[in-house]
User: What shape does this take?
Amino acid sequence: MISLILPCRNQADHIGELLLRYLCALETLGQPFEIIAVPNKCADATQAIAEEIASRDARLRVGPNPLGGWGRSVRAGLDIARGSILAYTNTARTEPESLRPFFDLHREQPGSLVKARRVQRNAPFREIGSLLYNIEARLLFGLGSGDVNGTPKIFGADFYRSLDLTANGDLFDLELMAHAHRRLTIHEIPVAGFKRHGGTSTTTMKSALKMYLGALQLRFQSRTRSQRSIAPTTAKSPS
Assistant: This one.
């Protein structure tokens, strides 16, 4: 079964139509699925709309994240997912009808992580910021991905369950990709451009700087954990 996680934040003006489109899109895959909508600290009717649709369609569940944060929202959905194939994507920028090639490739390569690589964002500031961030990810973690944060991302439940991810915010994708780089084959499907379904982006110069510094901190923490795991233990001799 497929479990698709859809974090959503203040999208009451379009989330109802969008969730119905996701349900229709996954129907075409020809296998059991569930969609888990995760209202991300919403201040509008997003959660109420999602819950109303879920009351009419058992394939949709709602798992709110009142604390907020992209990583916390994705993990909230992944942690209650029942499928053996897990996926998540940014509902503000992903067209539901575009998902099929990603799931088809994962069916062909079940031991892999399949993701999007956005080759054009139609926003110069975001393109430059993303380029710098991906260069940093390559230098710190050896990632060859051209778009660390690109979604959708699809991977096996066994892989996710073996991890201990802690990032609550925008560093979640980098933390996940760092693990996938060491353990899985990563396939990227180019996506030319995107448009928002609604709302405004939360990415600012301040949040971008926070991600750059956060990547350095994540690398330091990862190195520290690795050193601890290989450090020899000294047994005490009996007195």
